Amino acid sequence: MSNGFPDAPVTSLAVDPKNPDTVYAATFTNGVLKTIDGGQSWNAMNTGLTNLAAIGVVVDPNNSSTVYAQTQSTGGFFKIPTAARVGHPLIWDSPLIK
Q1: Where are the domains positioned within the chain?
Q2: Tens-place pLDDT, residues 11-66
Q3: How many CA atoms lie within 13 A of 58 on its CB side?
């Protein structure tokens, strides 16, 4: 885990269509991680998620600042409207769908 990526099963990857160095990874045990340097370093972005068993992540193709994640079971479907903004807090909105 020298680059911040845990030894965890990846369930989904999403690449920012406007910046291919920005990638989001949904993991089954560590929530959602983000890299802005093509995978050289990763940071967790789990504030607001109610379950760290993330099973899906997508970038809005019309607005790459908006990212969606789905968590297993009763976690729900979450939206983070400011994911691509540097220096902006990465806090998931309340579940859109449970």
Answers
A1: 10-80
A2: 999 999 999 999 999 999 999 999 999 999 999 988 888 889 999 999 999 988 88
A3: 8
